[in-house]
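Lab notebook, bench 4. Continuing the backlog of folding jobs that were queued last week. Each job is logged with the same field layout so the records can be merged later without manual cleanup. Today's entry covers Tetratricopeptide repeat protein, a 390-residue chain. Filled in by technician R.K.

JOB TYPE: sequence-to-structure
TARGET: Tetratricopeptide repeat protein
LENGTH: 390
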Amino acid sequence: MRIVLYFLLTLAIGFATFWFYGHPVKVSFEGFNYHITTSLNVVIIGVLISSFLLRFLYGVLHWIFFVPVRLQEAWKGHKSLQDQKNFVSFFLNVMNHEVQGALADAEKVKGYHNEDPVFIYLFGRALLKSGKTQEAQLFFESVIQNPNLKLIGLSGLAYLKLQEKDLLGERATLETLLELQPQSIWILRRLYENLKTSQDIKKAKELLSRLEDKGYLEEAQTKTEWAHLYFLEAQSSQLSDTEKGKRLRQAHFLNPNSNEIAMNLAEALKKTGKVRQALDVMTTTWNSDPSQKLGDAYVRLLGNMSPLEIYENLKKLCQKNSQHPESLLLLTRYALFAKLWGEAKEHLLTLLQINPSLEVYQLLAQLEIEGYNQKDQAYEWLKKGLEVAA
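JOB STATUS: finished
OUTPUT FIELD FOLLOWS
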């Protein structure tokens, strides 16, 4: 805007000078015993030149007087850029577990970020990773004293208690956090995990209901968590066998995929003489999540049977997922036990195609020795197994 005004003023003065040049006007100045007579053109040109000189002089003096300010601003900009580089280095060191480097960078940026929540949390984590637990605790406790940073300080303290496996300390800190942030999903979930670990099933159920009501958990996850709580509740020595059985049935209904729940329920049913129901429970779980541990538990439920009878029952168990590696492995083990060498070899050759693990090669070596007395071939299988495992 000023440039436009200067341009218009110059144009006006130039036009006036040109006009007065064609219409000369004399101007006289008297004072201090001096008498000066000149033309108006000269006066206008003199004023114009003087104004430009004054403007130039003002610019020069302004630049000179403000040199210290500019130097200070440049220094601040340099420090700000250096601080940013140090903070990025600090952040990357924390993320990459370079603890000593992180702490060294923290000292460089602490003065600029002592109220930055991100810096505070990461610095506390770095202290913890370096093994300075006491120092980290004092740091987070000092942060809590600042009302604006209380939330981040308590969050860091809760993490510290979690790392120390101090369930009571973590719980107290999380409950304080929950008063400040009653809708926070991570606080609710972390407190729920704490209550579950400390076996406070009653309060864990209350908190799980709260999480469910707020829609913080998906339906499948909700069922799994309720099943786990019922399972934990069934472990209580204060419950009767009947009540334990009810809790285990509820748990299995909600999460039929859990091997642990299925085996405990099967054992409880066996105690009451309901072996057939126990086998059905384990079959349901086997169809969705087979494992060798579950298969062995199923065999124990079969009672006093011959190895051949056990193998035949296991074939029925594995009907729905006969090509699953766990099914093939279970059938192989019990085929070897029943000395059914051909059946065992067939299962093992199928396993070689879909899951050539060290265990498969070890079983092939066992088959060669026990079934065919071929020690050299057994050695070759073991050698291949070691190559696979390497």
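OBSERVATION: Residues 67-95 form the longest helix (29 residues).
SIGNED: R.K.
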